Amino acid sequence: MNKDALQHARDLIAKGRTVKDERDDWSEHSPSTDDENAWLEKHGWDEFALWHLGIDRSEPEETKKRYSFPYGDYSRLHRCAVISLESRAGQYGHDDIEDATKKLLRSSTRSPAAVLDALSPCSRQNDRVPDSPLAASPYEVLGVAATATDDELRRAYRRRLRQTHPDTGGAALEFDRVQRAWELIGTADARAAYDRGARPASTEDRTWAPAAPRREGTRPAARSHGHPGGWYREQFLVLLHEWVGRGVEVPDPYDPRLLARAPRELRHLLAQAVAEEDTARALATLGIGFTVWHDVRTDGDAAGALRASPQGAGGKIDHVVLGPTGLWAMLSEDWGEPVSVRRGELVGPALARDERPVHELAQRARHFARAARVRFTSLVIVVPDGGTGEGVTSLGSVKGMPALVVERPRLADLVRRGIPGVGIGGTDLFEVRTRVQAAARFV
């Protein structure tokens, strides 16, 4: 343990020389080898040592091998570098450095509130509201049964850390999930509380029941039509009662303990409903210059039931959005796992083998466009925050339309700004709105 470096880190916190970046930003914010070498040449080895909590005195002096566990960019301390150090130190059995990083998060000459503001958002991500009814349990994330012994749990945690650590070729999103899982069940008290059904304080009031309509802020909302998530909720409730058993009373169909036992297919229906509702709230913030139609049928049969498809509700577009930046066709998706792009299509461990969401959306958009005598200018698959790790990813052109996969927090800004060279204005906007309104039939 490099005690001088620990004191230097405390001094940086006291002076406010910290970076409030996100947990996964360290791979981008850490200095490059060239920048590090240039800094080292200018400032020397003594100052270089102050930026590393680890020191191996068996290695020669004035060599990089002597120093490890960097916590900043040689100018400021990065809070997520400190979080990463804590995990790595625990993973490789450096108990003194692990303890030091924990103390570092707490110690400062400033007030405790200031320390929390500077450092804690990364370390408290386990308090985030679960993103999805499909979210895996901490036991599933660690790859053990709920009946595993404490020793089996500890070994599984260290194994998963090694497998997912970005420094060893793992994925940052999965590494984060492993850390949050351990925070929920890593100690005897935490595990007992989790097994009793207790959850972090910020999730205690969370329910997957439909939210009451509400207005946020005073800005006029986008005009909207239809019932986002309604079809999926109806299917969820019908099939839930069939699963529980006819005649069995279900006081709360959204009880987390009930949902934890429900088949994945049931939870997926609920996740899709929640995804559509969350997207609808994001689109409402676009303002009065935009119009949104939710759950728009595309199969031409307004009276019949929707057909089944690997995509879920075949024959509908989740959101049709019209504004100065164009006419957008959107599907809101939640598979409970991150997805990636392969040859213009989305793939991932949770997608069915024959599931082709981008192709499906393009087909539905063509059907509706033909009926309404309009042309969609963009196709968008909306996924939860962290669903791709990229924010906005281009899928290329699909049937002549730009296609993208977008994490929900980036959606409203993307639609407001639009895609360069794409848009609708003047009398054309009014004409397209009239045609869409006349053709729209809702689920």
Give structural notes:
It comes from Pseudolysinimonas kribbensis. Residues 195-218 have a biased composition (Basic and acidic residues). The protein has 443 residues and is α/β, with parallel strands linked by helices. The chain folds into three domains: 3-123, no CATH class; 138-203, Orthogonal Bundle (Helix Hairpins); 223-439, no CATH class. Helices cover 43% and strands 15% of the residues. It is built from 17 helices and 15 strands. The protein has helices spanning 3-14, 26-29, 33-43, 45-49, 79-91, 95-106, 112-123, 138-142, 150-164, 172-185, 188-195, 230-244, 256-261, 264-284, 357-372, 411-417, 426-439; strands at 18-19, 52-55, 67-70, 77-78, 223-225, 291-297, 308-309, 312-313, 316-323, 326-332, 340-342, 345-347, 378-383, 392-398, 401-407. The strands form five sheets. Strands 5-6-9-10-13-15-14 form a seven-stranded mixed beta sheet, sandwiched between helices. A two-stranded parallel ribbon has the order 1-4. The protein has a two-stranded antiparallel sheet with strand order 2-3.
Task: Compose a concise summary of this entry.
By secondary structure, this protein is α/β, with parallel strands linked by helices.
| DSSP summary: helix tally | 17
Number of DSSP strands?
15
Low-confidence stretches: 108-129, 201-205
The helix/strand class is alpha/beta
Largest sheet: 7 strands, mixed
Global outline? globular
Query: Helix fraction?
Result: 40-55%
Q: Please indicate the percent range of residues in DSSP E strands (runs of 2 or more).
A: 15-25%
Protein name: J domain-containing protein
Region (Disordered): 195-227
Pfam families: DnaJ
Domain J: 137-198
